[in-house]
Amino acid sequence: MESIHIKKNIWDANLYDTNYSFVSKYGNSLVELLAPKQGEKILDLGCGTGDLANTIYEVGGDIVGVDKSETMVEQAIRKYPHIQFMVQDATDLDFHSQFDAVFSNAALHWVQAS
What we know:
- This protein is an alpha/beta fold.
- It has a domain at 37-105: Vaccinia Virus protein VP39 (Rossmann fold, 3-Layer(aba) Sandwich), CATH 3.40.50.150.
- The protein is 33% helix and 16% strand.
- The protein has helices at residues 13-19, 22-34, 51-58, 70-79; strands spanning 41-45, 62-67, 84-87, 101-103.
- The protein has a four-stranded parallel sheet with strand order 3-2-1-4, covered by helices on one side.
- Helix 3 links the parallel strand 1 and strand 2 (62-67).
């Protein structure tokens, strides 16, 4: 089996929001399953442009969004400046027991082990 290596993580965040917004829409049912509580600390792993992080925020979750793509995080910050977003690789997170839950929608298949 041939392995595939992505050399650089380049995403067009505007194109993503325009042509692939259905990804977040499908994720709304996962937010319902998560059932975030007021003040619950939640990490959105692979937050993309922040739509689902904002949904979690709106129901009272204390949300932090991370994504490996700088362009996606920049777009998320522009769209939702009231939420903390940061660029981080899922395989090398800088968090230690800070969250009550981790949420991820359509992102884990992009994570590559080192």
